[in-house]
Design a protein that fits this description.
This protein is mostly beta strands. The chain has one helix spanning 2-11, and strands at 33-39, 46-54, 60-66, 74-78, 84-89, 98-105, 111-117, 125-129, 135-140, 153-155, 161-165, 175-180, 183-189, 203-204, 210-214, 223-227, 233-238, 252-253, 259-263, 273-277, 283-288, 302-303, 309-313, 323-327, 333-338, 352-354, 358-363, 373-378. The protein has a domain at 93-189. This is Gll2419 protein.
Length: 379
């Protein structure tokens, strides 16, 4: 049961074989400079995932899904001198939260996140890690409200947390939930027809509207959905394989209401896509991956103020170990870096863009120990 759930969360939608490798070559137009800031060694974590977060003083925080003292993940920081510290090792006892999948900060230095496993039912938890270094459990999952919250949480201006659980709920296909003032509430139960198995992080609009994806449901290829604060849930788009399949990442939202995201499979070449969904509901494929330029994008896209999109693919590229790519506002696509295994492999988390032109991210494997890396790419 556990191994199947882990494979689904990390490697893609159920029933789809995602470790597909392409052996052709591709040379980017001009390689950017990538620096490995930290290579994980198992004891300090392994399989880093979830988008890095950066405080105003430049310190990076992140999570590793596995490894650590109890082999069930870590929460770590990397300071401006690239000094790495483990702040918390998950899974200290049977009911402890374990296998973290992402972080979100508040304005006073606290960090919030979710774990895929742990708790009395071993079905996941939402936690708070205080600025003082104390971890507290805000909710544990067990069935009715969903299980396996594999996408982290988002935080609104009032301190309310929102997230998704990938399975169970009243229909068995996952839930959309909130935690407000310590009280958990399932806001929506996915039905299958309107979406199933949500795995991507939510995007929140200023008015409190939430946008997200489901990796299954609809016609079987996944959906894009919207939930507004009045409680209305809408399916905005149903994928049909030709325009993409299996969106396991979240969405980016621009000021005009356009949504940007990725599908891990489908599209013209069957290897995944980058898409845009307009407020009117029109989906445009911005790029269909061929293999030489990457394949299986498991992360969403990060949007710069000028409209440029940055993202990663978990496989493909010149060395079949994944890529970092850019799509300019005019639609032109470019591979910025192709991982070779020694500098990391299989990047699966969203990138962090820091002005004036630096990307931070993680790879889920690779480097000498094979446990993944934290990297920086100068643009």
């Amino acid at each position: 049961m556990k191994s199947a759930a882990i494979a689904l969360q990390i490697f893609g939608p159920a029933g789809v074989a995602v470790w597909l490798f392409w052996s052709g070559g591709y040379t980017p137009a001009a390689a950017q400079r990538l620096t490995t800031l930290h290579a994980f060694g198992q004891r300090d974590g392994a399989v880093p995932g979830g988008k890095l977060v950066r405080s105003s003083d430049g310190i990076l925080h992140g999570t590793a899904y596995r490894g650590g003292l109890h082999e069930r993940g870590t929460l770590y920081k990397l300071d401006t001198r690239n000094r790495f510290s483990v702040l918390h090792a998950f899974g200290a006892d049977r009911d402890a939260p374990s296998n973290p999948v992402g972080l979100v900060p508040d304005s006073v230095g606290n960090l919030y996140g979710s774990t895929y496993y742990g708790g009395p039912s071993d079905a996941g938890a939402v936690f708070k890690f205080s600025a003082g270094g104390v971890l507290s459990i805000l909710h544990t999952f067990g069935g009715a409200g969903g299980i396996y919250p594999g996408a982290g949480v988002v935080l609104d201006g009032k301190g309310t947390l929102f997230g998704v659980a990938s399975y169970e709920g009243s229909s068995g296909h996952g839930t959309l939930f909130k935690i407000e003032k310590g009280v958990f509430q399932a806001l929506h139960n996915f039905t299958g027809k309107g979406g199933a198995i949500p795995q991507g992080n939510l995007a929140a609009a200023p008015d409190g509207t939430l946008y997200g994806t489901t990796s299954g449901g609809g016609t079987g290829a996944g959906t894009i959905f919207r939930w507004n604060p009045s409680g209305r849930f809408e399916t905005l788009h149903t994928f049909n394989v030709q325009d993409g399949s299996g969106p396991i990442a979240g969405l980016s939202l621009d000021s005009r209401g356009n949504l940007y995201g990725t599908t891990s499979f489908g599209g013209r070449f069957g290897l995944g896509t980058v898409f845009k969904l307009s407020p009117a509901g029109r989906l445009t494929t911005l790029h269909a991956f061929r293999g030489s330029d990457g394949r299986e994008p498991s992360a969403g896209v990060t949007r710069a103020p000028d409209g440029t999109l940055y993202g990663t693919t978990a496989a493909g590229g010149a060395h079949s170990q994944g890529t970092i790519y850019r799509i300019a506002a005019n639609g032109s696509f470019r591979v910025l870096h192709a991982f070779d295994g020694k500098d990391g492999a299989r990047p699966r988390a969203d990138l962090l863009l820091v002005a004036p032109g630096t990307l931070y991210g993680t790879t889920s494997s690779g480097a000498d120990s094979g446990n993944g890396t934290v990297f920086r790419l100068k643009l």
